[in-house]
Every structure is written in structure tokens, then in C-alpha cells.
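User: Before I run my own analysis I want an independent prediction to cross-check against. Here's the chain; please return only the C-alpha cells and, at the end, one sentence I can use as a sanity check.
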Amino acid sequence: MRKTDGLQVTTEGNAAGSGIRESGGSEKEREPFAEQPDSREGYVGVDGCPGGWVAVRLESGGGWQGAVYSSLAALWEACRGCSLLLIDMPIGLPSGTERRSCDGEARRLLRPWRASSIFAAPVRGVLDVGSYAEANARHKELGGRGLSRQSWALVPKIRELDALLQQEPAACGTIFEAHPELVFAGLAGSPMRGGKKTAEGYAERMAVLQQRLPEAVQVVEELMARYPRRCWPATTSSTRSPWPPPRRRPAAGPDCSRCRRRTCAMRRGCRWRSCTMRLTGSSSHSRRGTRNRSEA
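Assistant: C-alpha cells:
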């Protein structure tokens, strides 16, 4: 997270499409960044999305622009002269069993509510792999652990960013890795409590952004109206989440007699990795767990 003339840049959304809409509620359409006289100034936040890469640029004077680019190379050409470009994607990949120290520090800063939003970056050796099964096997061989599906889904984006940084030396001094939850934690003074896909979490984040950027709601509404997704409403508000409701978790089972935590009814065992207790139908473990729950 970096401050730039009192502005903080962050990205938290997804989009698909292309184009620009002028800030301030104007319906005037504008050309992409690179064709604007002032496009090579300001601070840009970037995130991957189904349509490619979504970018929002904040100007030191308070204006903003947003667009979606099909490739990171096109985005870089449009924003090459920007003062700072923050991207929510790993930069600097491990080559072996070592872990990135920045990931561990980020988890520490986001405890206790948002530490799980930081996941380990994949090793560089999986960037040229074409299937998850092969990538998982290679990751175990090189990194000493398996590769999560979440990390594998980001490999194409990570590969594209890694290639750009190697081909464009100037990008290394402008593009920096950033994480939205760390930015929100820095702005608010503590990690966000609610998940970003819940109405409460969305309102919490928008309230934080509005303290620094009063038109934050307008920015989100205009970009989502221009780049709609089928699961998003046409408009949103500071108290209404633009994301679909989260999936319901399976009904809870009895409390585990060993760790005292609630078990999952869909699994015959305690769901906590640190607990080795296993449920066996109507065993004493299940009966004892039920009794513990009723007594609580």
C-alpha cells in the first residue's frame, strides 16, 4: 500500500468490456487513456477480470477514469507514463520451497478477519504448464506442497504480468503489487470485518473509500453500468452489495468432543485440520458432541 498525494488506489471489482466514461456523472464518452493529453499522469489501480484487466485511474485533481483492456500490454501502453500502477497480482515468484515473506507479513496484518484472503503465490515452474493436474504435481516437486485451485486459476494472469515485467524494464519502476484488503486495512486502521461479497462487507468498504474519495459510489455505479455482468444489478448503492449472495454452507453437525468446534454435517469428521477426531455415525463422539452443544 502506498500513498500518493493523499490518494489511495485500490481495485476490488470485476468487469467485462471496454471503454471509458467521464467522471462527475457526465454521459460524454471518452477515448482510452493513451489518447488523452493528461492520460500519462495519475495513479492507477488494476485487477484481473473475465474480460481482461480492469483499470481505474485517479488524478491528483480529483477526477477519475475507468476502462477494461483485453491484454495487460494494451493497458501498459495506455498508462505507461502514470506515476504509479498498483496491481492485485503476485509479483516476484518463488522458485523452490521458500515462501514469500510478504505473504506471511500480509496475513499477520490482516488478522483476525481477513488473513485467509492472502494465499501463497505459485512457484515459477508452473507458469508454462497447461493443466491443473500437471501443475499440481510440479508444484509438489518444486515447492514441496500442492497448488490450490484458486492459485491455478490466476496462473494465466500471473504469466501475462510476469512476461510484461521481463519485456518492459520501465514497467518495473511503475507497476507494484498491492492487495485490496491491505489497502482497506491501512485506510480504516484495522482489517475489514465483513466479506467483500456480503452486503455488510461491501457497505463497510464503500464507507472507507468515501472518506478519501467522496464520489467512490459514483465510480463503482458508472463502471458497473458500463461493464455489466449477468449476476450484477444495473445499479448499486453504498449499502447494497453488487455481488450475488454467497453459497449456503451445509448444515452444522455436532460439536467436536476434542476441539469443541462445530463439525460439518456433510463430512464424517472434524473439519478443523488441527483436530484428528473423526465421527463414526452414532458413536460416543457424536452423542457427546450433541450433548456439549445442548449444554452450551
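Sanity check: The two ends are 43 Å apart (CA to CA).
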